UniProtKB/TrEMBL annotation, chains A, B:
This is Type 1 glutamine amidotransferase. InterPro entries: C56_PfpI-like (IPR006286), Class_I_gatase-like (IPR029062), DJ-1/PfpI (IPR002818). The lineage of its organism: Bacteria, Pseudomonadati, Bacteroidota, Chitinophagia, Chitinophagales. Residues 10-130 form the DJ-1/PfpI domain. PANTHER family: DJ-1 PROTEIN (PTHR42733), PROTEINASE (PTHR42733:SF12). It comes from the Bacteria.
């Protein structure tokens, strides 16, 4: 059994702020984790979708992995973007106008995407690069 | 807690046949149940997607509830069809060309869809109607 299917998710973190407490202005970048259930809920929360969209409107890096890009569909920000995701949602991203490719990590003007937890090393590396570029601009 | 969120799924059934054993010719109708994980796997199985598509090609009733319609997206059978689903995947169905509506049950020429387990009584009633109509034709 692979590490990411046996609930060995690593350390737990306490939520420090909720959507009501924050705006995109206060952050340098956004990471949308995956999981089958998490993005499925997040994409139905209009306030969360608006928060995600704000990062794109402000040109800040956004990273999404596995099912994370589902929320990007509802934020209406994938049309014309090159990206990847877990295979199960590839057709949904294509139908939303994305140029979907099967690669371990894709960077398209600040949008960093990967497919599965196995891609995490490449995903994290590119995400850090994008954040550093953003901060130095 | 609602009955359908506390794992009280009712009786379990043993799988009697797998995809390798069957063709759509042998059945009068197809039911695609929901769940967040089940259709997410099913839609990536090309043989399963082909099996689903065969029911549409043969004009047989197909019923899908909750996340069940995700597999219909991959079978490329929702374009121009009126249907419903769990809210989380509504944008994916719209992007695939469906006329998505928020109703407890929708019937469109043999395609029966509902949103959540709370819609099951209406869903089951319409499904039975469609099967009976199909058999008597």
């Amino acid at each position: 059994m692979k590490a990411w299917t046996n609930k060995n998710w690593g350390p737990e973190y306490t939520v420090d702020k909720t959507l009501n407490d924050v705006t995109a202005d206060e952050y340098d970048a956004l990471v949308l984790p995956g999981g089958v259930i998490n993005p499925d809920k997040l994409r139905t929360n209009d306030e969360a979708v608006r928060f995600v969209k704000d990062f794109f409107d402000q040109g800040k890096p956004v990273a999404a992995i596995c099912h994370g890009p589902q929320t990007l569909i509802n934020a209406d920000v994938v049309n014309g973007r090159k990206l990847t995701s877990v295979k199960a949602i590839s057709q949904d991203l294509i139908n939303a106008g994305a140029n979907w490719v099967d690669e371990e990590v894709v960077v398209d003007e600040g949008l960093v995407t990967s497919r599965t937890p196995e891609d995490l090393p490449a995903f994290n590396k590119k995400l850090v690069e994008e954040i550093k570029e953003g901060i130095h601009v």
